[in-house]
Specification:
heterodimer; A: alpha+beta; Ubiquitin-like (UB roll); FAD/NAD(P)-binding domain; 5 domains; 7-stranded mixed beta sheet; 6-stranded mixed beta sheet; B: alpha/beta; D-Amino Acid Oxidase, Chain A, domain 2; 8-stranded mixed beta sheet; 30% helix; globular
Chain lengths: 1003, 415
């Protein structure tokens, strides 16, 4: 059984007991435990069920590579599925439940899959479930979906918060083991600004578990001294519980800091996402141990040798009472020795190498441990827990020589450098035949914009595996990074490490070497996704030869550990099956993040009200206080209408239209884009930008203009006012302000860079209010002494006026067909003016109106709206706006495009008005159909409705439509198609439904 | 070819599956083929399949520089829908969607087409009008869609927050027979069928040059030697510009990265595909249990098959707002593919300046869902030498004539 040892536990504070629950059962742990070590200390070996066959699963590892130990953790708004127990620090009151089983962990219906495993090899689902056709969606898929998935779906809204940080450093060191510490020290000594991050809560990594000395003192003393030295350096910042998640182009690195996962009652954000710009990044990410492929290697109780050692040394937990060690390298002997020293039984060490191990093997033998060279595990016995192993010759086919009772198997297949971060941004790897792993090729690093390398590896991550070379390599990395970021390194020598010498390892990809299919079909590679040696071999047999094909066909490495444990063994198995070399088969692509990171952290602070920036006009407070019904328009929220008690939105908008047309309306038009275009070439520039002539506009006057894309399509419209010879003010649509400003800049910066023009977006610098209706002038006159009569201030003119004490620029323009002034004042005075207009307008029954009333009034007057009449496929000529296209200009953006054959085609749909015969209102987006059918046998479409409203002014429905030969069809009745209903007839009419002669506007 | 079935699996189980044959052969290139297709992605393989199936042309090589299905076919978010606005788009995407319905049976390979329904959320008044228009257009095009209410949205996808403070859901365009399929299986199923018809799929074979004489292609140079052909088809998505340059012409197209990501797998929580174009993100749940998430394309041209993290951030932020429960899920993996984007966001399928050279490209973010339709149309184009009705509007000449098929108005950014 697994239990807590009386001695050991270097990371524990045994004086601080903690309680937690697993599947409702109360367990005890101590401060310093991981959830994994605490579960083991309570003899909870089995933690979950595998993905495909629902086999019992126990811990395999002690760190980020753990594929099995995943639990549903927490409750309510703090619930989280798939929490990895090996990287979860225990806290008091933690609650968790095992996953992927029904009804319980011990008795799982899904385990029937295990008995069917023979019928469910890799990719079996591509070969069946095809008949009958409907059954996939209605029968097979729902069953598969229920059986698949791991943790439960969170139900409640996340109770935690998240935040983003930014950091700019010379040298980022990822990994706080001895390599990272030394690299950070070397870079810090050189004066570089250093950020050192470590994913766990502890500095020093594995070194203290593995032992050895540095400069003659125990490695732990070296670690402590180095931390003190780094702490004292003002140019070095250290963060633990922070993982390097991804490396991106240009030296952009993502850091993932877990602030309160270990102490959920602490106030503040749960996770912090760091966006780090580092001149140089050192990856001191260590190495991960690989398992061995033998039959039954997935039975709970079979763990990585290093994990068994970690649990004993770090957490004072014995995984088993009797541990068989099986290995192809010397390092696993350290586990046997640790266990023996902790008073535990190691019945045998099976060393697959015919010649066995070196000094560590001798040390093991000296402790009285039986060591068998050239031997292997034929199979592991047990169901939900290891009960023993059958031993065979590695060179044979699995003939059992002996059976040994044990409750734990510690396996080691060698170590693989963690090359993920090196590889994210294009760093390349070499296969090292001696060390049997892929290691970074320093000659092919990730490179920046100038071709310079920006990632350096250090220590194990470089493929340096013994303490001395780790320290040497890390020191060099730190100095190189400092130098590359402009800091001269010191000449101090790197520390000297001493550790037990190791004999050469041997590549063992299958145990025993000649294992027959019966054993291979029980030899696991990917524990979570249930991928076995036989599956990879089947993929190769069926032609899925590319490593990516094999991965996707078998799902190898697609589990939540992303193949940290299984990939190298898997691709070696594939290489053997293909009779190819491992480097020829290659690896799959390493993608961020290194381990999964929370979506909450990625989203950061941006949620709810501040999901996106809200842009507020100076009058927003009044709108909110007066029941404004808002609609989002870009980042603005514009008032759709101001409903009074019991009014629907439609009724409110209609009331607002009628009140405005009868007397006086007020619109907050502040969101309209305002761009100042200034310079000696401003007129020339605007002549290119707009279809009509702007350079001839006189100061003091306004002109309506159209802007087209290079492809000739109408992209925006608005009124341009000439302020003085050099200065124009261009109004754009609300949604268009940023886009049009960027459009201007693009042309100015890339094509007409030598023109003397500046464009500035001043949208938010001004508040703008439209004063609209027959009494608009009376209201304006109340506020100013200056003459605003039609003679003094005519239509399409503008004037600087003082309204009370407020300086204003007033444009006499109209989008409603009424007498109308748009008053622009500095944003800070917008609310004051609005309030003053409301007071002064009281005698005229002033009515604030929203966007819907604006839309209705413009439609009644036949004015187009960008986004309604246009959709990126419409040219001004389609809309009957030829009058706004200059014939005199030799060029403007879109002119050439508009001459292309299809653009000049007389069969293009043209804009007309539509009236239903019964006065009803047409639906949005409806199409007009003609006689006959098209090439596909469908009804022939001859037009579509672009805008449609009930006109309160006229008392019937009005619409605009783009219609084939529209202007030639005046008076004709056309059919508008309804969805699942009979066509509605409508009569083609003029666009201007109201006050065709402009008698209301031009008074 | 050994037929796949539950009985075949049972038979093979008895002998530990030792009898399964290769899904596709690994042939040595011939000197010459009737048709050479560059690109063994979904569209290239589907083109080959329908050349054989519909026209009996089987002396075909499909040349692939990497591994078959390894480009955008194996990198997308597997969404299939045909609720497009413009008639030519709706026609070809609906053809594709309808072929997906029977693809597993047609190929004897389970591609797991799952018509679970696709909804596109309307979160502004403008979007409501736009999707209502699309619903009207689809009704006339014979594509079954409907505009549904916010309450119905909530019923179909209970994990959506329909009343968020910034962009409350106002309704959605719903295509009940849209859905997802297993992307790799589509490539593998076509490859197996093509190989079975005697076609050669040449993997790890990179085209290094296109040889032509007098305005006609005579063959291609590859890393496995020269290969002659009577007709050539270029079906290489993001690398179309490169191959076109080798052939001596240019394309009105840009290559940009499109990124996607998946969460860790959880038990079923979302049965439909949801696209939220106002906030720029879309999400579905795979059969494996992962939330499959995508967003818009990166804003700069790129060939690296990875992209900037800020885009992932924007997408995740949008989806955390739309589906608050995913805040406590974890991102497992992010990746990128290179999509080929034309000026009007519609594909190019047609003839080229070289008489016997044809092109299928420019699918942008819509490549996966159109695979069978694109292949069907391209096969017809190659066999007959002139475009058939499905792709008549998608020729290169539309750019010189100004005859755009602009979908951006309806699709926003996402596919």
């Amino acid at each position: 059984m697994s239990t807590r040892l009386a001695t050991h536990g270097r990371l524990l504070d045994k004086s601080r007991p903690l309680t937690f629950t697993f599947n409702g059962k109360s367990f005890k742990g101590v401060e310093g435990d991981t959830l994994a070590s605490a579960l083991l200390a309570n003899d909870q070996m089995m933690i979950g069920r595998s993905f495909k066959y629902h086999r019992p699963r126990g811990l395999v590892a002690s760190g980020a590579e753990e594929p099995n130990g995943l639990v549903n953790m927490g409750e309510g708004g703090k619930f989280e599925p798939n929490q990895r127990v090996t990287t979860t620090e225990l806290f008091d009151g933690l609650t968790c439940k095992s996953q992927n089983h029904w009804p319980s962990l011990d008795y799982d219906i899904g385990a029937i899959n295990n008995h069917m495993a023979r019928f469910m090899p890799a990719g079996f689902y591509y070969k069946t479930f095809m008949f009958p056709r409907f059954a996939w969606k209605h029968v097979f898929e729902p069953v598969i979906r229920m059986s698949a998935g791991l943790g439960n779906a969170p139900k409640d809204r996340d109770a935690d918060t998240y935040e983003h940080f930014y950091a700019f450093v010379d040298v980022l060191v990822i990994g706080g083991g001895v390599a990272g510490l030394q690299a950070a020290k070397a870079a810090g000594d050189a004066g570089a600004k250093v950020l050192l991050i470590e994913q766990t809560a502890h500095w020093g990594g594995r070194a203290a578990v593995d032992g050895g000395t540095v400069d003659g003192v125990p490695v732990q003393a070296f670690i402590d001294a180095t931390i003190d030295a780094l702490d004292a350096m003002p140019n070095v910042q250290m963060r633990h519980r922070m993982m390097g998640a991804g490396v991106y182009d240009h030296g952009y690195v993502l850091g993932y800091e877990r602030l309160t996962d270990h102490a959920p009652k602490t106030a503040g954000p749960r996770h912090r996402l760091w966006r780090i710009c580092a001149a140089q990044t050192i990856t001191a990410t260590g190495a991960l141990e690989r398992g061995l492929s033998f039959a039954g290697n997935d039975i709970p109780g079979v763990l990585l040798a290093s994990a068994v050692r970690d649990y004993a040394v770090n957490f004072g937990v014995s995984v088993g009472d009797r541990t068989v060690v099986v290995t192809n390298n010397d390092d696993a002997y350290r586990t046997a020795i640790s266990l023996k020293e902790a008073g535990l039984d190691v019945p045998v060490i099976l060393d697959a190498r015919p010649t066995g191990g070196g000094a560590l093997a001798d040390a093991a033998r000296a402790l009285g441990i039986r060591v068998e060279n050239g031997k292997a595990i034929a199979s592991v016995q047990g169901g939900k827990r290891v009960t023993g192993v059958a031993i065979c010759d590695q060179a044979g086919e699995g003939a059992v020589l002996e059976e040994i009772r044990c409750d734990c198997v510690a396996m080691s297949g060698g170590w693989s450098p963690v090359v993920h971060l090196w590889s994210h941004c294009g760093g390349k790897l070499n296969w090292d035949d001696d060390a049997v792993h892929f290691r970074p090729d320093p000659d092919r690093p990730p490179t920046g914009a100038k071709g310079e390398a920006f990632v350096i590896t250090a220590g194990n991550a470089s493929g340096e595996m013994d303490l001395h070379s780790v320290l040497q390599d890390a020191d060099k990395a730190g100095k190189s990074a400092a130098k590359a970021s402009g800091h001269a390194p010191t000449r101090t020598a790197a520390p000297t490490g001493e550790s037990a010498p190791e004999a050469v390892m041997m590549a063992i990809w299958l145990m025993p070497h000649g294992a027959p299919i019966k054993l291979r079909a029980k030899s696991w590679l990917d524990y979570q996704n249930d991928v076995k040696v036989s599956d990879i071999q089947l993929a190769a047999q069926e032609g899925y030869e590319s490593v990516e094909h094999a991965k996707r066909y078998t799902t190898l490495g697609m589990a939540t550990d992303q193949g940290k444990l299984s990939n190298i063994n898997g691709l070696a198995t594939l290489a053997n099956a293909l009779d190819a070399e491992i480097p020829q088969v290659g690896t799959t692509t390493f993608r961020p993040p290194y381990t999964p990171i929370s979506m909450g952290a990625i989203g950061g602070e941006a949620r709810g009200d501040i999901f996106q920036p809200i842009r507020r006009t100076p009058m927003q407070g009044w709108h909110e206080a007066n029941n404004g019904d808002f609609e989002p328009v870009g980042h603005w929220r514009r008032v759709f209408c101001y409903p009074k008690a019991d009014e629907t939105r439609e009724q409110a908008a209609h009331r607002e239209v009628l009140a405005t047309r009868a007397s006086l309306g007020l619109l907050d038009a502040s969101t309209l884009g305002k761009i100042i275009v200034k310079g000696p070439d401003a007129g020339k520039f605007l002549d290119m930008l707009y279809t009509n002539m702007m350079s001839t506009l006189k100061p003091g006057r306004c002109r309506y203009g159209l802007m087209c894309s290079e492809n000739g399509f109408l992209m925006d419209d608005g009124v341009v006012a000439r302020i003085d010879d050099d200065t124009f003010l261009c109004h754009t649509t609300t949604g268009g302000a940023e886009r049009i400003h960027a459009h201007m800049e693009e042309w100015l910066q890339t094509e007409w860079w030598d023109w003397q023009v500046y464009a500035a977006n001043v949208t938010e610098q001004y508040a703008q209010i439209a004063v609209v209706g027959p009494n608009a002038r009376k209201l304006l006159q109340k506020l100013t002494d200056e003459d605003v009569s039609n003679d003094a201030f005519s239509f399409m003119g503008w004037s600087d006026l003082t309204l009370g004490h407020i300086k204003a620029r007033v444009f006499r323009i109209s989008f409603s067909g009424e007498l109308s002034y748009e008053i622009a004042v500095s944003a800070s005075q917008g609310r004051a003016l609005w309030d003053r207009l409301l007071v002064a307008g009281k005698e005229f029954g002033v009515t604030p109106y929203g966007t819907e009333a604006l839309h209705i009034m413009r439609a009644e007057k036949g004015f187009i709206m960008i986004g309604d009449e246009t959709d990126g496929t419409v040219i001004p000529q389609d809309l009957g706006l030829n009058w706004a296209i200059s014939k005199k200009k030799t060029d403007y953006l879109g002119k050439r495009a508009q001459q292309r054959s299809h653009m000049a085609d007389p069969d293009r749909w043209k804009l007309v008005g539509l009236k239903t015969l019964d006065g009803g209102t047409l639906p949005d987006g409806a199409y007009i159909v003609g006689e006959g059918v098209n090439a596909n046998g469908q009804r022939r479409v001859i037009g579509r409705v672009t805008s449609t409203y009930h006109s309160p002014t006229l008392g019937y429905g009005i619409a605009f439509a783009l219609l084939l030969h529209g202007p030639d069809r005046m008076g004709e009745v056309v059919n508008v198609a309804m969805i699942d209903d009979v066509d509605v007839p409508a009569q083609v009419c003029d666009l201007v439904f109201f006050d065709k002669d402009g008698e209301k506007q031009n008074v | 070819m050994k037929r796949y079935s539950v009985f075949a699996i049972a038979r093979e189980a008895a002998r530990y599956h030792s009898g399964w044959s290769r899904a596709w052969k690994s042939p040595v290139p011939q000197k010459k083929y009737d048709v050479v297709i560059i690109g063994a992605g979904g569209h290239g393989l589907a083109t080959a399949f329908y050349l054989g199936k519909n026209f009996g042309i089987t002396n075909v090589a499909i040349i692939e520089k990497g591994w078959l299905g390894g480009g955008n076919t194996g990198r997308n978010t597997t969404i299939i829908r045909s609720n497009y606005l413009q008639d030519p788009s709706a026609a070809i995407y609906e053809k594709a969607r309808s072929l997906y319905e029977t693809m597993s049976q047609d190929l004897n390979y389970n591609v797991m087409f799952s018509p679970r329904g696709v909804m596109m959320l309307a979160q502004t008044e403008h979007e409501v009008r736009g999707y209502k228009r699309t619903a009207h257009a689809n009704a006339l095009q014979g594509v079954s869609t409907e505009f549904i209410s916010a309450d119905r949205v909530k019923e179909l996808a209970p994990i959506i927050n329909i009343s968020g403070p910034r962009y409350p859901v106002l309704g959605a365009l719903w295509q009940e027979r849209g859905g997802t399929a297993r992307h790799d299986a589509v490539a593998w199923g076509y490859a197996r069928a093509c190989s079975d018809m005697g076609m050669d799929i040449l993997q790890k074979c990179e085209v290094t040059g296109v040889r032509s004489i007098g305005g006609k292609v005579v063959g291609v140079d590859t890393t496995k030697g020269a290969i002659d052909c009577e007709k050539l088809a270029i079906v290489v998505a993001g690398n179309s510009g490169d191959i076109a340059r080798m052939a001596g012409f240019r394309l009105p197209m840009e290559s940009v990265a499109l990124q996607a990501l998946v969460s860790e797998p959880i038990k079923p929580a979302l049965d439909v595909v949801v696209m939220a174009n106002t906030v720029h993100g879309y999400m579905s749940q795979s059969d494996k249990g992962e939330m499959v998430i995508g967003g818009g394309t990166d804003a700069y041209n790129n060939y690296t098959q990875r992209g900037g993290f800020h885009h992932i951030e924007e997408t995740v932020r949008a989806l955390v707002e739309t589906f608050p429960m995913i805040s406590r899920l974890k991102m497992l993996r992010q990746w990128g593919g290179i999509v080929d984007v034309t000026g009007d966001r519609s594909p190019i399928i047609g003839t080229t300046p070289l008489g016997n050279c044809f092109i299928n490209c420019g699918w942008g973010t819509g490549g996966f869902k159109s695979i069978p339709g694109g292949g069907w149309a391209t096969a017809e184009l190659i066999a007959k030498g002139t475009p058939g009705p499905l792709c008549a509007e998608f020729g290169l000449n539309r750019f010189t004539e100004g005859r755009f098929i602009d979908e951006s108005v309806a699709a926003g950014v996402a596919h």
